[in-house]
Amino acid sequence: MPDTRRRRAVCAAATAVVAAPAAIAPPSAWTGAVVAAAAMATAILRRPLGPVAPVLAAGLVAGLSLVTDAVHPGPQGLVLSWLPVEFAAMLVLAGRVIRRAPVRQAALVGSALALALMALPLRFTLRRPQAVLEPSVVAVAMAMFPVACAVGVGLYLRGQDNQRARAVQRARREQRLDVGRDLHDFVAHELTGILLEVQAAQVSAYDEEENRELLSRLEAAGLRALDSMDHTLQTLRDPEAPALAEPPPTKVHGLADLSEVVDRFLASGTTGGSLELEPGLAGAAPRAIQDAAYRVVLEALTNVRRHAPSAGRLEVEVVGVPGPALRVTVTDSGRQGGPGGLPARRPGGGGTGLAGLSERIGALGGDLSAGPHARGWRVRGVLPLRPERRGRG
């Protein structure tokens, strides 16, 4: 509100100054003052006609200026009192319309303003006592330069605005993709574990102690899934939040967390296995690389639970390789005829989890592969210890 009142005060003062010469002019010359005041008010107030859209108001100014060029009968000496104000105001309107209006309106109203601007000097030159063509041509040619500048500035700022809007859309899309990947990585992992625990309990009867342990594991997995879901909802709660701001913080896991997730996996089923973690890697690898390695293991364990819950053996290996790089490998022995799970895996059928993980690792300069190995399945990721982030195409 204070800004609006300030604009109105400035507009009123400027109008009084512009209209002052009309006090000594005959009524036939007032049309020039009216057009100049209307153009200036539209440029300053942006919405001088209230509910009328600014682009429509600018179009009305252009039309009024062209009509005045055609019918203005007043003394030509007074035209010079208002012509510079009208010209400057319409330059501002042309640049603003071209920058901000929808494409069709910008083309139509922008063209009308440009035409009015180039025709404006003719209001003076064509009504001189001895009108000749040469001054009119020179005046129009001189008017073309500032008009071209206004159009160029409007188009440049419009391009910058469009580029910024696309950047905002990309940032929002990337943030939502990150949230979706986190949701898949953690919530799907826990829910798959809960489902397979329940399936296993239906196949073989548990005694009272085993039931208590089962319920305790289900409770812990459910709480972890709810925590991940709460974080996801918190991230998505405000869809109008500035997309270019720093995204909400997410938990970054490291190689030290692998022991817990592998132990929890082995404790929740009949699969045996081991984790081989090369000493010193946790201190040498960057946090982004450690988090990516953790997600490789988590995704592989989730797929084992979904597709081969009866696998007899699971091997997780995290070692350093020449490059220098970190290599993380998860290998299972395949289905052994136990509880069913989902249909058998096939090469290239890893679903959105492996696809999203491959994109994440590729952005760090690494590589992810997954496919049959012996009778089972192997997931392997190779991550550079000095990552170079790549753009996503």
In short:
The protein has helices spanning 2-19, 30-45, 54-71, 79-100, 103-119, 122-125, 133-203, 208-236, 258-267, 281-284, 287-307, 351-363; strands at 272-277, 313-321, 325-332, 367-373, 376-384.
Task: Describe the protein's architecture and organization.
This protein is of the alpha+beta class and 393 residues long. It is built from twelve helices and five strands. The chain has helices spanning 2-19, 30-45, 54-71, 79-100, 103-119, 122-125, 133-203, 208-236, 258-267, 281-284, 287-307, 351-363; strands at 272-277, 313-321, 325-332, 367-373, 376-384. It has a five-stranded mixed β-sheet with strand order 1-2-3-5-4. Strand 4 and strand 5 form a beta hairpin. The two termini are 45 Å apart. The relative contact order is 0.07. The model is unreliable at 241-249 and 338-351 (pLDDT under 50).
Report the mean per-residue pLDDT as an integer.
75
Please work out how many helical segments DSSP would assign. Answer: 12
Q: What is the structural class?
A: alpha+beta
| Percentage of β-strand residues | 5-15%
**In whole angstroms, how far apart are the ends?**
45 Å
CA-atom Rg in angstroms: 36 Å
Which residue ranges are poorly predicted, with pLDDT under 50 across at least 5 consecutive positions?
241-249, 338-351
